[in-house]
Amino acid sequence: MKKQKIIHASGILLFISLFATPILATQLDTTQETTVVRIGVLAYRGYKQALQRWSPTANYLSSRIAGCHFEIVPLYLNDIRKAVRNANIQFTLTNPGNYADLETRFGISRIATLQSREGSQIRVRYGAVIITRADNTAINRLEDLKDKSFMAVSAEAFGGFQMAWRELADHGIDPFRDLGELRFAGFPQDKIVLAVENASVDAATVRAETFARMVESGMVNAADFRILNPQHNPGSPFPLSTRLYPEWPFATLKETPRKLATQVTLALLSMPDNHPAALAAHSAGWTIPLDYSPVTALMRSLKIGPYEVLRETSLWALMKHYAYWFIAAGITLLGLITLNSYVTRTNHRLRETERNLRSEISQREASQAALTRYRDNLEEQVMARTRDLHQTNQALEKSRVALRKLVKITSAPDLNHEQRLQQLLETGRKYFELDVAVLASIDGDEHRICTTAGDPKLVPEIRGPLNQRCATYLVEHLSEPLDVPDVVNYTSADSSCCKQGWRSYLGIGVMLEGRIHCTLEFAGTKMRHSRLSQWDHELLKVMAQWIADELERQIAYEAQRRHETEFARVSRMSAIGEMAASLAHELNQPLTATINYNNGCLRILKNSQPDTAKLIQGLERAVEGATMAADIIRHIRQFVQKGEERYGQVDINQAVRNVTTLINHEIRRHEIELVFDLDPDIQPVAGNLIQIEQVILNFIRNGIEAMDQMNKHHRRLTIKTQAMPSGMIRLAVSDDGEGIEKAILPKIFDAFFSTKAEGMGFGLSISRSIIESHQGRISACTRDQGGAEFTFELPATAET
């Protein structure tokens, strides 16, 4: 902290020293008359917003500088140029691109740079975002914008167009030639974001801060947009599509008195970061002016602003723009002619004294030869250094492309665990230009190949890694890479490498929970002349870490699935326990009937002439009762069984009948009218029958409990199934209870939430987990005619 204060104080002293000398020579009028000082501000979000944001800063300057009253003049880009040309303002606060143009054309000078605050972070650079609608699947990259409509502020807007222009140009897109339509909407920038949201244009660009403020204020929803060319820069808290550039400069016109400019500079630099003026401007005060060469580089790259002349190639245009240089060249040429005349006369005199100066000439020739040799050596060194830099840049670019692919793979939501590992290995194999990649797990002394990529013929049929000795090295040296350009001359490699056809090897250990969990190995059939570069080794470490993260997520996911499965089984056991009395009654009826029929058959058999027809009829009825009891017991055993999840085609109507068979006595005991509205033509769904029956049972039991206090003549439970146009199968269980209170409706499916005093809050939470694991949707609502309705929807599958 002390070091930062010293640096900040040094910057202030530097500016005081720059402006102090002219102050001694130029004095302002010491009268007490108030002077109006105008500050031209770029109104990139409209005049009203500009006045609200910057008027407190003007008031602050008025309070700090006696005899001056500062006022804000909101201006658009073209208006700022006119105001500076006519000297209608004394200071300007504009975007970096406009400032660079004004500096070249009119000689304005920056005296401070704006600091922006985002939370606890203070930043002095900003960028822009290029956005499209999230549901616009035709646009995923900048290259996809070709022949699409695009909206920006104006061609001169720095954050509102030129930042994005540079990124488009780097991706081979000329916005004025390749886009289907390029529209400039002017300020404020809010309407540009709304145009994308309303699908008036395919894509647009605005300042990143503007988009973030609109999301923060609730004007738009960030989920409705996709940010193209996303950039990850620790210097900005906002999502970015472009590079970062210095924040807005506060600049003075050359006509502004130096003393006044100095006073404004000191006042701005001394503004506390929590001053009301800074807070109103969404800033953290001001700092010394930054280097705006990145802005100049952008303009030079795009040939705009001061470099617009580069687009002109005629001789007259060049002479007009470089008039001073042509004049200087003419003067230089005249001087050279004069010098040549002088040298000629001097040479004439030198020839007369040649004999006396021969020794000196010899020394000069020797010196010239030495300088020539030095120049040749220097050129060779420069060329060698240039080659090295070019190779380094190529390696960095290759690493950047590979990292982008790795990030895309690890963040792809449509890939499962095995697919991610497979694509990670394939990307690494292609990056290192090797023929095979293997991920082998380590469990004690046992190795097992998990995933491979590349030529399967090069993968050994053994269960171990590619090379046992190399794998042992990786385990002993933890996460350090092992790079073997020539396996034949590597003493630690075993003979199986050559037999398998490998000539080069690359490997690293994958750390998980503080130990080597598996080995990541690559092998090639060609020998390499040297080890891979440091950047390649660093990328290999990144791959190993990402594979470790993926394995850790998969382990956690499998543990969670086991926990949820066991939790659901316990819930089913609990439900069966709560229905024990009803189930006992359900079993008692068929068993009692079976006993009575058997007793009747015994009495018939004891007669001297038994009635065979009645005997057969009694035995058949006894078998029916015993079969019904066996079916109930079998279904209960299936419902509470523990084992692997069995997925298949499930008939929702049959699942409803299975559950109502279990809970039929419970329904009759509560005197509830059970109504079925089952669509006989619905398609089956893919899922686990027991889990789906558990959800239906939870819905029915909730309905029974909801109507427990209702009039017996108004207890109706309706179960309805239907096929939806969206291809989903919908099941709804509705009751005539009191419904669900609006306050608790959002929490109805939360774990441990229950409206019953003895409830644990597990049933509906488990139901939601089951339905979501089947890629379905679950919901609850209060019906308009009274009562509650619980529904779920599952994807239908073609019946085979």
UniProtKB/TrEMBL annotation:
Annotated Pfam families: GAF, HATPase_c, Phosphonate-bd
- Which keywords, in A-to-Z order, does the entry hold? ATP-binding, Kinase, Membrane, Nucleotide-binding, Phosphoprotein, Transferase, Transmembrane, Transmembrane helix, Two-component regulatory system
Could you tell me what this protein is called? Histidine kinase domain-containing protein
Question: Where in the numbering of this chain does the Histidine kinase domain appear?
Answer: 582-798
SMART domains referenced in this protein's UniProt entry, alphabetically? HATPase_c
Q: Does the keyword rRNA-binding apply?
A: no
Span-the-membrane segments of this chain are: 322-343
Known PROSITE patterns for this protein?
A: HIS_KIN (PS50109)
InterPro entries, per database record: GAF, GAF-like_dom_sf, HATPase_C_sf, HATPase_dom, His_kinase_dom, HisK_dim/P_dom, HisK_dim/P_sf, Sig_transdc_His_kin-like_C
The reply to whether ATP-binding figures as a keyword in the UniProt entry is yes
Coiled-coil parts of chain: none
- Any one Gene Ontology molecular-function term assigned to this protein's record: phosphorelay sensor kinase activity
Q: Where is the signal peptide?
A: none
Q: Which organism is it from?
A: hydrothermal vent metagenome
